[in-house]
Amino acid sequence: MDYQDYLKNGEWKTYSLAHYPDAPKPVQLWLVLAFFAIMTLGMVAGYLTGYFRSCFVVALIIAICLYAKTCPIRCPKCHRQVVTRIEDTKQDGQDYRQFFHDCPGCQITWICKKTFVSDS
Fold first, then answer.
1. Nearest-CA neighbor of 46 among 12, 38, 105?
2. How far apart are CA 50 and CA 74, in angstroms?
3. From CA 117, how far away is CA 94, in angstroms rounded?
4. Which residues is 49 bridged to in the sheet?
């Protein structure tokens, strides 16, 4: 089921609500070491080929993709992967954006804080 079907389905409307904890997730040591290894290989490849900037950017993109694939947002209760929804609201003439993380496993919608959306 893709994201649009998920929104049309509306099953998430029956989930109970809870506030997503503000505590930061600890970064795993292997992920930090992998990041530095990928960046080092990119810099070495850039030095050997003469395309330092291109190799650095490619290594940075690979490292960010590794992080995004291995550390998705998870449910604090059951640790399954969640589906994220974004709702834009207008309050007191200002635009706000709020993230909701729906967990199909324990049927809880985790609510994040509203963030101000700047005009720029």
1. 38
2. 41
3. 8
4. none
Structure tokens given for 51: 């395309």
Contact assessment for residue 26 and residue 116, using Cβ atoms and an 8 Å cutoff: no
* Residues of the chain by 3-state class (helix, strand, coil), percent to 5: 40, 25, 30
Query: Rounded to whole angstroms, what are the CA distances from 89 to 10, 86, 94?
Result: 19, 10, 8
Q: Give me the pLDDT at residue 12, please.
A: 61
Could you give the 3-state DSSP secondary structure of residue 68?
A: helix
- pLDDT tens digits, residue range 81-108? 888 888 887 777 778 888 888 888 888 8
| Threshold 0.85, pTM exceeds | no
pLDDT for residue 7 is more than 70: no
Q: What are phi and psi of 110, to 5 degrees?
A: -90, 125
Distance CA 81, CA 66 (A): 16
Domain ranges of the chain: 1-23+73-120, 26-70
Q: Are 7 and 85 in contact (CB under 8 A)?
A: yes
